[in-house]
Design brief:
Blueprint (H helix, E strand, L loop, with lengths): L1 H53 L14 H19 L3 H5 L4 H6 L4 H12 L4 E11 L2 E10 L1 H4 L10 E7 L5 E2 L3 E13 L2 E11 L3 E9 L5 E2 L9 E5 L4 E3 L11 E2 L3 E9 L9 E9 L3 H6 L8 E6 L1
Antiparallel strand pairs: 1-2, 2-3, 3-4, 5-6, 6-7, 7-12, 8-11, 9-10, 9-13, 13-14
């Protein structure tokens, strides 16, 4: 024991220095290991990022159509540019990327775009997951899931995991239809019977429904009723697959169902038809038009004359 104490007293300085060197070397090794680990993780992330960039959404979710990688990269860049403008609060720049028909139908002013889209979705910065939904007729529709950018917000909660889902369509000029609006088509076709004329002016296609601008002229001397509401599918679309798609005509005010003699009304009617490249709309039908409203009101239960009008699209 005395020997150990004497050895310690004689070599105290050297022992302390030796222990310090060993501790220092251990710390250095740990630091180098940590740096190597971080570099390895960073390299892995870079590889994953590169792989993600190369994994372009060329194949459509619906229909299986394939778009070239070159065209897909152009389309993805356009959508990402739009999102970047929104993230940087360049509202004018983002609005100017919309098609004229989107401005006409969905957001007629920059202020309506700001309040109805930007303020709702981009209250916080977003990152996007972009999938090819459907490509047809020189239009490319993408399913875009917009997530909160946790790097920008600095926090993560359950709402960050629930994306805002939009369907964005790129036309042949590289302009955008947003808010699930796909496109608008002018139709201007008509059908007439017994002095009652059905005019289908235009068609608006959305991801989950179709809307039609319709004009009905009553060129008779009697008040008419365009629908009695007694049948569930009296106003409907006919698809190229012969399936009937019902309308949401019940959303109209009841007073608009009546058209006075020698008068007309304009309608916007929505139909329950989901956007598809395989099924086109071939006709629109009003099957329960009452040509004499006063007579009908005297006895609704009596089977009176009905007129059916349809327009082939």
């Amino acid at each position: 024991m005395n020997y150990i104490v004497r050895f310690w007293n004689q070599n105290r300085k050297k022992i302390i220095i030796g222990i310090g060197v060993i501790v220092f070397l251990i710390i250095i090794v740990q630091i180098l290991n940590q740096i190597a680990k971080e570099q390895k993780e960073l390299a892995k992330q870079n590889i994953q990022t590169e792989e993600k960039e190369e994994d372009l959404p060329t194949q459509s979710i619906i229909g299986g159509e394939s778009v070239s990688e070159e065209e897909t990269k152009i389309n993805v860049d356009i959508i990402e540019t739009f999102i970047q403008k929104c993230n940087s609060a360049d509202i004018t720049g983002a609005y100017n990327m919309l098609t004229n028909e989107c401005k006409e139908v969905v957001f007629p002013t920059e202020e309506s775009f700001k309040s109805g889209y930007y303020d709702i979705i981009f209250a916080t910065k977003k990152i996007a997951n972009i999938e090819n939904f459907l490509s047809t007729d020189n239009r490319y529709t993408y399913q875009v899931n917009l997530y909160n950018d946790i790097l920008a917000t600095g926090k993560l909660d359950e709402t960050d995991q629930t994306p805002y889902q939009d369907y964005i369509t790129i036309d042949q000029d590289g302009k955008l239809n947003i808010n699930s609006f796909i496109y608008k088509k002018e139709i201007n076709l008509e059908s007439e019977k017994n002095g009652i004329k059905l005019i289908v002016e235009s068609q608006e296609i959305y991801k989950d429904n179709e809307k039609y601008k319709i004009k009905i002229e009553n060129n008779t001397d009697k008040r008419i009723l365009i629908d009695t509401r007694s049948k569930s599918k009296s106003v409907y679309l006919v698809g190229s697959n012969n399936v009937v798609y019902e309308s949401f005509i019940s959303e109209l005010s009841s007073i608009l169902y009546e058209i006075p003699a020698n008068f007309y009304r304009n309608y916007t009617i929505k139909f329950n038809k989901i956007y598809s490249s395989e099924v086109e709309t071939v006709a629109i039908v009003f099957s329960d038009i009452v040509p004499d409203y006063e007579k009908y009101m005297q006895n609704k239960n009596e089977m009176l004359e009905r007129i059916q009008l349809s327009v082939n699209i």
